[in-house]
Design brief:
By secondary structure, the protein is α/β, with parallel strands linked by helices. It has two domains: about 220 residues, 3-Layer(aba) Sandwich (Rossmann fold); about 70 residues, Alpha-Beta Plaits (2-Layer Sandwich). Helices cover about 40% and strands about 25% of the residues. It has a six-stranded mixed β-sheet with strand order 6-7-8-3-9-10, with helices on both faces. β7, α7 and β8 form a beta-alpha-beta unit. The longest helix is centred in the last third of the chain and has 17 residues. It is elongated and about 80 Å long. The structure holds adenosine-5'-triphosphate (ATP).
Length: about 375
């Protein structure tokens, strides 16, 4: 019998293809009453990647992650984890996921070891020796081995976040889903947690959400940009910068006077716009926007050479991920980041257990998701 034509072969191919994608999200829709929070989002994440879900506040990142982890249901659409449907085969699918929600689900009156022991129970790790080795492993991975005896409430925010990561790692799931893992941390803690996530990426597929572009740029191999519930772009950070750019910036230093240099720039067909940045000791610094996406440095070289104006320095700069984000979402990065800062300060003021109204409703809903909209409608 020709193996290539057998049912078994087709099955093998199916398993291989499905396993290649650690997670597949197809046509995901989530409506809260009349409000469309997620509108037909599809994407697949291959094994071994660190993927960033990037978007401004309210874009639908947490909702998408909550559906991916099976925490809430979708209005329609499908999520498969390692080939298992999150709704139809939830036990197999959830075994593959370690989830860190935006507010880590910590029991503050437990010690780190007690809490992780409890998480082992929840994840079905029952043998004492297995539990011990599992706790040792995860505490070592997130560098909290010497904190095991400490009460969680006495830990700093950065260390609490590490405990949150440790609980996600119990059971060694191949897929980690991390919702805004650095929100509310101070700059040093942010650097540490980012480095930790990057190192975890060597052994796990990671999907993290963030509204911080520099974070996604620094950690992620691939970016999904979400705006108003829609996936508006996806690619590597480098490709996104290239693809959405119809112009480049050229930074130059030219020997001569600003009048001479402006004369060349004004008539150059390769330059759309320019700005004189500085003029000192007979050298002019210029920032120019190119008329096309092509690399026009050769052409500029010859134009300036013809006028006997030596170019001392010339650099080409592509559109940054910030510019791409602005173009796609129409939102200023600084604006988004300051809004997010205000929101996290608000959470901080309400105390650690003080979930925001939206979060509390989510936490309270237990499947019967009553929406703010519905509440308002009453
Ligand atoms: N239970 C709910 N009832 C009604 N609306 C909701 C509920 N949960 C979320 N939303 C709304 O859905 C939209 C998407 O929210 P989501 O939390 O997914 O956004 P996000 O991108 O994670 O933003 P953030 O970073 O602010 O959490 C928002 O407009 C939010 O107000």
């Amino acid at each position: 019998m020709n193996f290539l034509k057998t049912e078994r072969f087709r099955e093998c191919i199916k398993i291989r293809q499905e396993a290649y994608f650690m997670i597949e999200v197809k046509n995901l829709v989530k409506d809260y009453g009349k409000y469309h929070a997620v509108k037909d989002i599809s994407f697949s994440v291959p094994d071994g990647q660190i993927v960033g879900l990037l978007g401004p506040n309210g874009a639908g990142k947490s909702t998408t992650m909550n559906i991916m982890t099976g925490y809430i249901s979708a209005t329609s659409g499908e999520v498969k984890v390692g080939g298992y449907d999150i709704l139809e085969q939830p036990i197999q699918a959830k075994k593959l996921i370690g989830y860190l929600p935006e507010i880590p689900p910590l029991y503050e009156d437990m010690t780190v070891a007690e809490y992780l022991n409890f998480i082992c129970d929840l994840k079905g790790i029952r043998k004492k020796t297995e539990k011990e080795s599992s706790i040792d492993e995860v505490t070592e991975a997130v560098k909290i081995s010497d904190m095991k005896g400490r009460l969680i409430k006495n830990l700093s925010k950065g260390y609490k976040q590490r405990v949150g990561l440790a609980q996600a790692l119990i059971g060694n799931p191949p897929l980690l889903i991390l919702d805004e893992p650095t929100v509310g941390l101070d700059p040093n803690q942010i650097i540490e947690i980012r480095a930790l996530i990057k190192s975890l990426g060597q052994k796990h597929t990671i999907i993290l959400s963030s509204h911080i572009l520099s974070e996604v740029n620094a950690i992620c191999d691939y970016v999904l940009i979400i705006d108003k519930g829609t996936l508006v772009a996806e690619d590597t950070p480098e490709h996104l910068s290239e693809d959405f750019s119809d112009t480049d910036n050229i930074n130059m230093s030219v020997k001569g006077s600003s009048e001479q240099i402006e004369e060349v720039l004004k008539v150059s067909e390769y330059i759309r716009d320019y700005k004189i940045i500085d003029e000192k000791d007979g050298i002019v610094d210029v920032q120019a926007k190119t008329a096309t996406k092509e690399d026009i440095r050769d052409n500029l070289f010859f134009e300036f050479a013809e006028e006997k104006l030596p170019i001392i320095k010339m650099e080409r700069e592509s559109l940054s991920l910030e510019d791409v984000f602005l173009k796609l979402t129409g939102q200023d990065v600084e604006e988004v980041e300051s809004e997010a800062k205000k929101a996290s300060e608000q959470i901080e003021k309400q105390g650690h257990h003080g979930f925001s109204f939206k979060r509390k409703k989510k936490a309270d809903s237990k499947g019967t998701e009553q929406t703010e909209k519905e509440e308002e409608d009453k």
